[in-house]
Amino acid sequence: MSLSNINIIGYKCCGCEACYAVCPRDAIYSLRGARGELVYKAGDLCINCGKCLSVCAAKSAKTYEATDVFFRGITKQKDVLKKSSSGGIAFEMARKILTYGDIIYAAVWDVDKQMVRHSRITSLRELPSMQGSKYVHSTIEKETYVSILEDAKTHKVLFIGCPCQVSAVKNIVGDNDNLICIDLVCHGVPSAEMLEEQLRILTKKPIKMLSFRHGLDFTLDIEDSSGKVYSVKGYDNPYYSLFLSFSSLRESCYSCSYANRKRVGDLTIGDYTEDGTGYSCVIPNSDIGKQLIKETVSIIDYKKRNACLLLENDALNHPTYRNAKMKDFTDRYNKYGLYFAYYRTFYIFVIKRVCRRILGDKLYDKFLKRIKKK
Ligand SMILES: Cc1cc2nc3c(=O)[nH]c(=O)nc-3n(C[C@H](O)[C@H](O)[C@H](O)COP(=O)(O)OP(=O)(O)OC[C@H]3O[C@@H](n4cnc5c(N)ncnc54)[C@H](O)[C@@H]3O)c2cc1C
């Protein structure tokens, strides 16, 4: 008998958990993948009904055609911009939807569960928790899918997430005009396991606040329950440096079928830089997306741009390439853990970073030029 369950997806599983949410037999279980990510499989209880495959984000995607234009966008609120990752677009869109009394689902650092997960947001007070990119896989629990389905019966629901997650939500909810989706440009996510290990090394106390970035400043900021603050530049922290060098992502991210210009969300947002200033690129993929832009012109400054400029954004054009040292890192990570694997595999890079810190950027660049001339 041919397989009609998610076991045909194999390593392409993106961890959306949609299969787990719809399985009528509780036959879905998770395995640990190459770098600690959870990969979902169908077990002995499976009756081959095919429900898991029908919602699987790695299997089926309904995408919009690529657009000719996009918008350079930036919020007009300075305090919003300060806490956002690029132009503060996700925050402003969510705020607009909340003012209509509708509901948001977005990724937050959950202080009680000590993990990044998609959470239901219904008030302006809760909204700041979704602000900023969390560079890790965000979990969408079964209860969250159920709650989205229920909410979409009576309210508009705005879901913001990575394209695979948007696809999963759309597959589960089906045709419903109440569902509005924003997908992020995404080059991939490391596992929650890896972030957990990094946080445990920094502090034994629960984490109150976790932030990866403010605009073009890629700094990891953490505050633990005792009020102690850790702040470290991205390339000087093992977890963050691995993320930025494409060495630690989920296996499925390296063959992501969403890393192109045909998008799944009504609107796509990602990074966009012009003359050294950070903005968001805002891509309207559907009429709903265009409407969202119209409704936010008073709070977001938009400028139209030709889509050929999006060729510069790798994650909109092809899946992320593997770092040449990724295999070595992965083998060591599984045997010895995060820090040993990172420092042993990338020691030359680490030495260069230390020299840069000691000498300062100017002197270090001058020194490098001299060496290269010789
Ligand atoms: C893992 C990851 C990789 C990315 N890679 C790229 C890239 O290669 N190129 C690029 O142009 N842009 C990338 N982005 C998008 C970029 O970092 C910004 O999120 C985007 O530009 C929106 O900025 P903003 O200021 O409008 O968002 P904000 O207003 O700051 O809001 C951020 C939004 O992102 C959501 N979010 C945060 N973390 C996650 C997560 N882990 N999973 C799902 N949703 C999340 C939040 O819920 C919120 O809605 C990536 C984002 C993530 C999360």
How would you characterize the overall build of this protein?
There is one protein chain. With 374 residues, this protein is of the alpha+beta class. 33% of the residues lie in helices and 22% in strands. It is built from 13 helices and 13 strands. It has helices at 18-22, 51-55, 78-83, 89-99, 142-154, 163-173, 192-202, 238-244, 287-295, 326-336, 338-345, 347-359, 361-373; strands spanning 28-32, 38-42, 69-75, 103-110, 115-121, 157-161, 179-184, 207-211, 219-224, 229-233, 267-274, 277-284, 300-306. The protein has an eight-stranded mixed β-sheet with strand order 5-4-6-7-11-12-3-13, with helices on both faces. A three-stranded antiparallel β-sheet has the order 8-9-10, with no helix packed on it. Strand 4 (103-110) and strand 5 form a beta hairpin. The longest helix is centred in the middle third of the chain and has 13 residues, at 142-154. The protein starts with 17 loop residues before the first helix and ends with a helix. The mean pLDDT is 95. The structure holds flavin-adenine dinucleotide (FAD). Flavin-adenine dinucleotide binds next to helix 4, strand 4, strand 6 and strand 11.
